[in-house]
Amino acid sequence: MASNDYHGGKANILYSIRDSERLDNLFILMIKYLKLTGQIPLDLSSYIPTFLSPIERWFSRLYGFLVLFSVLHVALFLAKNTFDILETGELEQITDSLVLTMIYLFASFSSAYWMFRQKRLMELFQQINQLHRHHSLAGVTFVSYRCSYNLAHKAVKYWNLWCIIGVVFWALAPLCMGSHTLPLPCWYPFDALLPFIYELVYITQFWAQFNMGLLFGNGSALFVAIIIIVLGQFDVLYCSLKNLDSHALLMSGQTLKAIKDSQSLQDDNEREVNQYLYSTEYLSDLENLSQQILKKGDKSFKRRLHEALIECVHLHQFILKACDTLEELFNPFCLIKSLQVTFQLCLLVFVGVEGERSTVRIVNFLQYLCLTLVEFFLFAYFGEMLRRHSVRVGDALWRSRWWLNAHLIKRDVFIFLINSERAVKITAGKLFTMDLDRLRSVVTQAFSFLTLLQNMAEKQENEVA
Q1: Is 289 helix (H, G, I), strand (E, B) or coil?
Q2: What span, in angstroms and rounded, lies between the C-alpha atoms of 191 and 11?
Q3: Taking the model in full, what pTM does it have?
């Protein structure tokens, strides 16, 4: 194959001053968050002697189980508290406790799930890091992976930060009000309000609340980050298909007059909008590129054109394989998330409508309600974007000057177009597609349950009266 340097290979040959060098790891921040919650083992090998490496591995596993225990024991104690207050018949207190129980049970599931699937997840990271293209085929124009990488980095950073702030406010509420109570109404087999015991229990609940916020955010941040990176690779693919003919001319060492004429027509004000989802298209520095490529040996235009198409096929296959792994990892996770959000949204709205009107209570439940809605919106929206953006191969090919050289690669193009018609979908347990229709369905189901709860509450009030 002709010079992997000019179609997103590992060499950092830049097409212009606006191009970006290749990064070896696109998930540095995400991995740090996963290590912080023990979902990926900590790497302490650089800080301890070699002969202590077995201890280091055991400590890494122990830390992950401690994080899991911190949220799981709270979930179980909250569940016990829920069963205890069922006897009272106080629907408001029952829903309060049930909301927190569901949140902590899902945090426990999230911690255990990614600890169990960490090997497969790291394989996906490694696959994307090794095979991603950091820019499109060299041609009249190019796009870089950098826009999608920056967006994924910001999404992980700010979403996790928002989740942590939201749950920590709940944990600090008793201190802010000067109340000698615990943040979470857990059942304990002892008096948790006694001196010294109160402080110890408060610290454990605060740590559990912090871990819950990170575990809550990590799942959706991971989903969003991977999909944004994949969508950036689709942008790279579509720009490469658009530049097939100019890339072949450039790589075969032919005259630059035709390519420069095409470049002169690329007016920023006349470019088609929405060609790419996250990437920005720039003009290539053809003079610099042509000087480098003149040193290459093979000058066959037909061969260069065919090899360029093969590279696009390889890139498309890599993207589809990464999406298949993403679906494998997330379809059980999304199923549990859908069920959790449906019931949690219903209970949160019910508590907000029927519950006590104290300021702290309203702020806390509004935070959880916003986090719940936004989190599931992220799953639905980016699932929708992946499905829609994955079937635009034909549009990208029609933007190239295909009519000039289609006879040279006609059969290959037809096969490529047929194989690219299948939309990429992320499902919830192979039952539902994660898209905006799923979001609408979940909200509709949640409000149906809300109506049922309100009728139960009204009936209870009438019986008391």
Answers
A1: helix
A2: 64
A3: 0.88
